[in-house]
């Protein structure tokens, strides 16, 4: 995809990764509508971008992605102002394990809302021009972070939802690609706020797992993650793909095509199988964090990769 004169929308655009996605889109010739709930920081960025790129390349809109009225309202303003939207980056996200309903509303609800708004505008059956949607997950969307189970759940949800919607778009010939970006820890205020504020109630051993991960392998800079984002925007062969990036580089994840393709261990059951399967999970005291899948062929314990890094993948160059 050539980005010259294309129109992009980025949520959570005022700082951190969202700001880096805005800047790499501008550097590649696109016009960008910035959406963020933080008006003061957003206005400040808009004036900075005006000086560097000119006033006609960007607009800033204050909106909360958890609000249908807000998000839909600014979406309609953006279409009116720019005439079209070709790219959407659902980037807005928070981490707060105590106020977990809000975390789910922003990290998953906001992605769902943005994806649906974009598909209604972009899909060819509605007279749209097609386009691409990049949903920002995390490596916590590929492997569980013990100190952030809610955050992990929302990021796993972004991966599952995006892969399912990419399949819908392909089957229905929407002409819209939907891809997922899964970064390691990145130096932004989300990460620093998380470390400094009491978002969660965790025992020391749980906290040390995450802290040791950052200490041993470091954190990414936003501009490196933005290069991975650009690969997902521009590569028109990618739909339903997840690009994972950590200090060792970027790799496309190879997911099993179907649940049946996951590695597994059979479990014997007789009649009344679903209740029997339930009882196995209740009674077997060796099981914790285990998933028992049951279908007409029987019941199997799924063998998940221990860590995101253990998933099959294909390296990609970001130069
Ligand atoms: N920083 C990290 O270590 C990683 C971050 N991510 C994800 O990347 C995305 C961006 O994160 P960061 O740049 O680190 O965070 P950040 O906190 O630096 O920036 C997030 C932006 O989203 C905005 N925002 C928050 N809630 C919103 C809402 N309801 N409506 C509209 N805007 C809202 C904030 O005002 C802020 O400007 C998030 O989805 C996060 O989960 C993924 C992996 C690693
Ligand atoms: C605690 C969350 C802090 C910040 C959230 C940040 O926004 C983010 O999304 C960071 C994600 C980083 C994830 C990094 C690696 C995840 C690996 C998973 O497979 C977890 C698996 C096990 C942890 C121990 C290990 O050896 O990897």
UniProtKB/TrEMBL annotation:
Q: Per UniProt, which keywords does this protein have?
A: Oxidoreductase
Q: Which InterPro entries match?
A: NAD(P)-bd_dom_sf, Sc_DH/Rdtase_CS, SDR_fam
Top-level taxon of origin: Eukaryota
UniProt keyword Lyase, yes or no:
no
- Spell out the CDD domains in the cross-references: ADH_SDR_c_like
Coiled-coil blocks: none
Record's keyword annotation contains Oxidoreductase: yes
Q: According to its UniProt record, which protein family does this protein belong to?
A: Belongs to the short-chain dehydrogenases/reductases (SDR) family.
Q: Which PANTHER family match?
A: 15-HYDROXYPROSTAGLANDIN DEHYDROGENASE [NAD(+)]
User: Which protein, by its recorded name, is this?
Assistant: 15-hydroxyprostaglandin dehydrogenase
Q: What is the source species?
A: Cirrhinus molitorella (mud carp)
